[in-house]
Structures are given as C-alpha cells and as structure tokens.
Amino acid sequence: MSLNNMLENLVNIENMSFRRDERVIYDDITLSIPKGKVTAIMGPSGIGKTTLLRLIGGQLKPQSGNILFKGKNIPKLARNDLYELRKSMSMLFQSGALFTDMSVYDNVAFPIREHTNLSEALIEKIVLMKLEAVGLRGAKHLNPNELSGGMARRAALARAIALDPELILFDEPFAGQDPISMGVIVRLIRALNDALGLTSVVVSHDVPEVMGIADYIYIIAEQKIIGQGTPEEITQQTSPLVQQFIKGESDGPVPFHYAAPSYRDELIGKGA
Amino acid sequence: MMGFFQLLGRKVISRLLGLGRAVILLSSALVHVPNVKKGTPLLIKQLYAVGVQSLIIIVVSGLFIGMVLALQGYTILVGYGAEASLGPMVALSLLRELGPVVSALLFAGRAGSALTAEIGLMRATEQLSSLEMMAIDPLRRVVAPRFWAGVISLPLLAAIFSAVGILGAHLVGVDWLGVDGGTFWSVMQSQVDFDRDIMNGIIKSLFFAFVVTWIAVYKGYECIPTSEGIAKATTQTVVQSSLLVLALDFVLTALMFTQ
Amino acid sequence: MLSKKIEIMVGLFTALGIAALLMLSLKVADSGLSGSGDTYQLYAKFDNIGGLKVRSPIKVGGVLVGRVSKIALDAQGYTPVVTLDIDAQYNNFSEATSVSILTAGLLGEQYIGLLPGFMDDSVGTLKSGDFIEDTKPALVLEELIGQFLFSQGND
Lengths: 272, 259, 155
Fold this sequence. Notes:
The complex is a heterotrimer. Chain A is an alpha/beta fold. Helices cover 39% and strands 23% of the residues of chain A. The longest helix of chain A has 18 residues, at 179-196. Chain B is mainly α. Helix content of chain B is 86%, strand content 0%. Chains in contact: A-B, B-C. At the B-C interface, helix 2, helix 6, helix 7 and helix 8 of B face helix 1 of C.
C-alpha cells in the first residue's frame, strides 16, 4: 500500500460498481494501477476480470464510480474523446484477435496505417522492429490461420505495441499455453514493460506465472477486492479465500460442492 | 390467457427494441463524412466479395428463368394465337417482378448469409472489439463498406438478371420455338416503357438492396458470438430478408402499378 | 493491399451492370417519346372518354405523336376534358383537326386518334393551350349493344 502512494498511478478506479442485468459484478471497488509496473488482477473464473479490462477500456460503463486514466474519467468521456484516449492504450485479447483477412505484417502495420501518415518505408521499419521484439520477424508473411496459438498471441502483442501505447491490458495471456510458449509470453510481458516503459495490467488466474512477473497483485472475489499487495505480501496474507486461491486448494471458502439439497435425501429418498 | 398476451407484448417490445438498435447501427455506420482515400479500397474489396462473387448464380439463374418463361409462355400464348406477344410477356415479367425479386432472394441467400457469417465471426473472435480498442470505429470500417457494396451491387445484378433472362427467352423463343425475331423485339419495344417498367424495376431493386443488406449486417453485428449464435443469425438473415422482400414487393407493386 | 485482379473484376462487374442497363433501356423499352423532348398541350372535350387512361397514346394514322397527360371534368358543365401532350415537332395541326377515341384491336386498349384537318390560309394552326373543336366520343360497348338491339327490334 505504501508503495502505491509513492508512485504515480496511471489508472485510478474509485468506488466503482458495475452490474450486468441483475447480477452485481463489482461492488464499490477501488484500485490503482501504478505507472511503469506490471499489475496483476487475479481471481476465480467467471468473477468478471475481463469485464474490468473492458471497463478500463471504455467498452462498458459502470453504474457508479470513476475510472480515471491519465486524469480523465473514462465513463464520462464523449465518443470522440474516448477514441482519442484509446490511442494511448492497447488490449491483447485472449484469442489474439488478429484480422484473418491480412498477413501478420499487415496486422501489425494496421494501427500505424490507420492513425498516422507515415510513409510505407518508415512503417516497414517499425513493423520489423516490433516483430523482432516478439521474435516473429521471420513470420511476417504468414496468415493468421497458419500460426499456432502461441505465435498468434505474440503477433497480436506486436500489433498491440505498434503505436507505443502507455498502457497494455492483457486478457488471460497464459491461458492454455504449453510450457515453452508460456515462458515466452512471460518473458515478453516483463521485458517489454521494462524496455518500453509501459504499464501492464495482466488479468490471469495462473498463479505461478503471475507471481513471477507481477510487481503488484489484486485478488478479486465476490464482487470485491479480497487481497492486494506485492507477491511476497500476498503469500503471507491470512485470509482463507486468498490462501485457498494461492495454494490451489480444491475446497475451502469456495466450496467443492455446488449448492444442492441433502445427499442422503436425494439418494435414499425422504421416505426412509 | 393473460400469459398469452404477456408473451405477445414481450415479443412486440423486443422486436421494436431490435428495430431501434438496427436503426442506430445503420445511422452510426453511415452518417459521417466519408474518407474517400481510405474508404474506397474497402468499398472495392466489398464490391468484389458481394457483387462479383454473386455474378455466376445471378447469370445462370437469369438465363434459366428467361428460358423457362419463354417455354411456358409460348405454350400458353399459342393457344390464343398470341405468340407474337411472347417478347413483351417475358420482358415485362422480368423487368417488373422476376428480375428485382428473384435476384434479391438469391442475393440474400448468397451474399446476405456470407455477410452475416463474416461479421458474426469477427465479433466471435473479438476482431470487432480489437478495432474498438485500437480507436477505430468498427461500424465505419466493417459495416459501412459492406452496406454500400450491397446497395450498389444488387440493382446492377438485377439488371444483369433481366437482361440475361430476355436473351435466354430470345434463345428459346426465336431460335428454338420459331417466334419471329423481328416481332419478338418490336412488340416488346412497343409494350415496355422506360419509366414504368425499367425505372420501377430499378427502384424496387434499390429498396430490396437496402433491406437485405441492412438485415444481413445487423444480424451479424448483433449475434451471440458462439457457433450456434452465428448459425442462427445467418439463417435469420436469409429467412427474414426473403420474407421482407416478398412483402415489400407487394407493397411497391401496389403503389407503382395500380391506377 | 488491393490486388490488381480484384480491381479489374470489380470494374468488369460494374461495366457489365451498366451494359445490361443500357441494353434494357435501348433495345427493350420503347425509345419513343417517353420523357424525352418538348411537348405542348392541346385540350379536347368528350361526351364519354370510355376506357381512355392517362398515358394512353395519341396517334395520327397509327404513328405515335404524344400521350394523354390528364383527364378531368370541366369545372362548369362537368364534361370530360382530356389534356393531350403532343410532341413539339408536330406543331402544324390545322384548327379543323378532328379527334376521336379509338380502340386498338377488338378488345384492346383505347387511344386517341387525330385526323389532321384541311389546311389553307383561312384555317389557322392549333397552338399550345387550344381546344380541338371536332371531337367524337368513345364507343361504349353497352350503347352499341343497345343500338343494335334497338335496330333489330325495329325490323
């Protein structure tokens, strides 16, 4: 907590509540993303971690509260201002979401061509540099459907850093990766964050990977933040829910059994 | 009993909401200053996907329908000694009704379903969200070029359909069944009026193009992003746009061709 | 990014579409007076217009010279007044021209037939807005049958 106060925060979420239909997803939460660091958002599946990224990106609007990015309140922005602000942030989707009708090169060049007037020669240099950073310079002519899942994600990462954003949001970057790809992604997130001075927000539930690269961790469950701190602080937190999550225990505050009537009654019948 | 009315009310309200969303989708996509340099390549690419690739089915169908019209028409007219009227009969049927309507139905099946599936898949693979997060409006970049391509292509396809149909009818009527070639064209020319038949046919086509393309892009954009969702949306595009084309055809015909 | 092939195909497609439209307009539709060219108006009063409709053709000896643009009742006597749109190039109709409502074929559509009248120095030409004086009403089937039965009955 003291660490956060000293550093400048790129994103500040204050007293934010968000509901989808009848279900409350977030209930009055406050968190901050420090600049230049890797912040992780963890929690059980289905808790709404991706929703948090969409809220920061302005794709969803909270019912109440502020989401401040560089001092501007995202939910209150007009459409044009929001689009302007989005040029400083990038999101890496779980599937990579490369455009399937163009090559890897054109995918990475896409945001540059759309938002700048740079010459093709200059764009080529930039694209090659970004691809080199993720290790895919040799794959620039391939089509997205010729890439493996891990490579697609790396290509999407190259596209995400094409315009040198200030903030990158990662949605479950480690999900379903083999150990080697996992290692590659982990290394890239950390390396790019430090080399380019980025601020990264990683949403994941892969505990060991997150512990390895995060500077600060928030654990979200039951519509609230149930734990936060540096990796060391988190492992020492005594809350049973945090401990169950970190250790990966199958039963605890999040029960093994889905709510059901008495087992004896169902099996044998009420008559007996 | 009350439950029935409730259900009906709910359905009506959800349809109205859907219509409202569709209108907002279209206006957001179209109402803006067009960027000619960036937009034209997109439009051309979509014209290819939507128009050029529908050519084969339109030409083949037009040819066969024209030929069948001539065949059937001849057998009926010859009973009244009126086979000289084969030309205008075929031409008027094609220009006023079959051309615009059948090409719209074929278009809905071929291009409409493809549009819905493509946009639905882009939504399912989060490509549309990526565009949003890259500060590019997916409505302007993805929806608008496809919409304009549809509106431009279908009238052209309908014209090609009618033209090929008339040529096919000529093939069967004159070359095969022995109707006099000169009579075929001259009686046709005396009966077909540019404003009444050709222009009305084109206007019908424009209406159909608007409706079919609008439904196709809306269903794709709003579908549930799963494989079943896309399949359902694609089916709905074909069914709903086909029905709407037929209903609209009745209304337009009543407006255009009654005294 | 845009391959040459795609651009050419789209160009061909558009050309094909325009060619089809041209073919339809020129070869299929009647390239007569519809919409093109200047016209002037003449008026004619009839007792009965029969099955005459707006846009019915006006012919002289079978040649199309114009179309009916309006059918209304005269404000005073409630007599039918037909407005004739005549092609401007045929502006030499004598005031003695007669107009009648004829039927094309046995049960065909009705059209206006103009019989150009006698032309000499004492007779002027019809100008825009003039009334044609010599009109013959349309043949109404019921009246014909009535006349026929009447004449039969008299034998």
